[in-house]
Automatic annotation (TrEMBL):
<dbReference type="InterPro" id="IPR036271">
    <property type="entry name" value="Tet_transcr_reg_TetR-rel_C_sf"/>
</dbReference>
<keyword id="KW-0804">Transcription</keyword>
<feature type="DNA-binding region" description="H-T-H motif">
    <location>
        <begin position="32"/>
        <end position="51"/>
    </location>
</feature>
<keyword id="KW-0238">DNA-binding</keyword>
<dbReference type="Pfam" id="PF13977">
    <property type="entry name" value="TetR_C_6"/>
</dbReference>
<keyword id="KW-0805">Transcription regulation</keyword>
<dbReference type="InterPro" id="IPR050109">
    <property type="entry name" value="HTH-type_TetR-like_transc_reg"/>
</dbReference>
<feature type="domain" description="HTH tetR-type">
    <location>
        <begin position="9"/>
        <end position="69"/>
    </location>
</feature>
<keyword id="KW-0678">Repressor</keyword>
<protein>
    <submittedName>
        <fullName>TetR/AcrR family transcriptional regulator</fullName>
    </submittedName>
</protein>
<dbReference type="InterPro" id="IPR039538">
    <property type="entry name" value="BetI_C"/>
</dbReference>
<dbReference type="Pfam" id="PF00440">
    <property type="entry name" value="TetR_N"/>
</dbReference>
<dbReference type="InterPro" id="IPR001647">
    <property type="entry name" value="HTH_TetR"/>
</dbReference>
<dbReference type="InterPro" id="IPR009057">
    <property type="entry name" value="Homeodomain-like_sf"/>
</dbReference>
Length: 199
């Protein structure tokens, strides 16, 4: 990588960090490109030399957050030999994200809300969410079903993903009333109840 490429990569990362801060604090619609540039310490031109506009910046931010999680999830899953061990590691990754970067959860909600008004954005959002569900479905498929009435891996993934997001939303609103650590037990309950983890 050349020095120019490295500088561009650093600029892009700084702009994404600034956009994350601004969007999480004020919402997508309320934030302008000049505000993001100012937060990052760059000119508006720097934003447009890296992104076509606010919409692409928002999409890149979502992809960074969700793509980074997928890579980390694959790493920790590879280190575990049992279904329960893999699930516990995945749950702990989610717990860490919600604890350390609650703004990432806020951004997912913000993007969902905004994308409902734009079919093209909604499709891209749905594709990224589907990739995450596919990773959870692969976890369910790694072990033989327990019993004849085990749920399809794809349906287990839907339930697990919805549960994790729901608990994160409630935790952010009420940290003491809804401790995010319960995600670990809840993920095991979902997989066990669906017949993809032995009792």
């Amino acid at each position: 990588m050349t020095k120019r490429q490295q500088r561009q990569q650093e600029t892009r990362a700084a702009l994404l960090d600034a956009a994350e801060t601004c969007f999480a604090a004020r919402g997508y619609d309320a934030v302008s490109v000049p505000e993001i540039a100012k937060e990052a310490g760059y000119t508006t031109g720097a934003v447009y030399s890296n992104f076509s506009g606010k919409e692409e910046l928002f999409l890149a931010l979502m992809e960074r957050a969700m793509g980074g999680q997928a890579a980390r999830r694959a790493e920790v899953v590879a280190l575990e030999d049992t279904g329960e061990g893999r699930l516990r590691q995945v749950a702990r990754l989610w717990i860490d994200v919600v604890r350390e970067r609650p703004e990432a959860m806020v951004l997912i909600i913000e993007f969902w809300s905004y994308s409902r008004r734009d079919p093209a954005l909604r499709q891209r959002f749905a594709e990224r969410m589907a990739q995450t569900r596919a990773g959870l479905a692969a976890l369910a498929a790694m072990a033989p079903p327990v019993g004849a009435d085990a749920a399809p891996p794809e349906e287990v993934a839907m339930a697990a993903y919805a549960m994790a997001h729901g608990l994160a939303i409630h935790h952010i609103a009420d940290p003491e009333g809804v401790p995010i650590e319960v995600v670990e037990s809840a993920l095991l309950w979902v997989f066990r109840g669906a017949g993809h983890l032995p009792d």
